[in-house]
Amino acid sequence: MVGRPIPPDLLPWALAGIAAQSGDGAAPPAKAVTTAANEEPALTVIAGDASNRRYFRLKTGERTWVIAEAPPATEKNPEFLAVRQLLANAGVRVPALLAADLDRGYLLLEDLGDQLLLPALSDQTVDGYYQQCFSVLHCLARAGRAGPALSAYDEALLSEELSRFPEWFVGKLLDYEPDVNGKAVIEALADVLVANALAQPRVLVHRDFHSRNLMIQPDGELAVIDFQDAVLGPVTYDLVSLLRDCYIRWPQDKVREWALSYRDSLVAQDLLEPTGDTEFLRWFDWLGLQRHIKVLGTFARLYLRDGKEAYLDDLPMVLSYVEEVLDLYAPQETAFADFRDWFASELKPFIAQQSWSVAQ
Length: 360
Fold this sequence. Notes:
Structural class: alpha+beta
């Protein structure tokens, strides 16, 4: 897919913002700000995310900056600014904001570097990093209590997310049209998963709290990015997003151990009423199933609509999470058993034919 050109006024706008930060109030021409190699400043593309936002790095002298081009028609720029301030006030490490032009969708931000958490995770490091992540989630939980009103992760939003699965993954990616029974099976499971989400205590939910949205800083602190979709929602959502990350997988026993340890830390800090193991793990597992069914649809849409083919490579891991939770609860829950049986008989033959499938 051919990318859109860089707006010609983006670099001059960024240089003006940097000049304003320096205190002289005058924006130098592009040629007046040079790199250490005496080159004219230029924007270097940084790998983007799943949205229409684009990020560029600008080097001036020995300093670097990040410029976001986030089209106002599609991106939640006012929400980004509001949530950024909310999280900063709560003690969460987020990129400093240096300038913003909401009309054009331009943001001048602190450069947090390139070190994502994902490649730093290993059997030796994961416990320490996840304890840091839990501390960040504690801050998010407190921010949800003290901050301004956020949108609710309500039935309409949860249902819209789940609707991406039959539309984009089943219908458009697999080219399969469920019959009346299949549609009823999908709807019955969706009803159970939405009810589970709505029954949980509310906290501030990042909605994409995982190893590609956490960045390791030189001092070892974890910074959080891509937070503009934050809502007030289920207490286990960000936890399962982290522990059942779509980009890295851990043993099930370890995941459950971490989940209950996090539950204990919430209770100890008066961020959650005492909750039994079975109830908390059901919240966690079922919300993880909701998230991963949604993600199947979202990743399919990112490929088919937006041309982002790399997300196909992540589908097998997401599918494995879905099947794991279905198998766990099918003996107890009719909606899980019916969906598992329908999924195995109707969808898995189509999945096995896909170039991205592990069955290939």
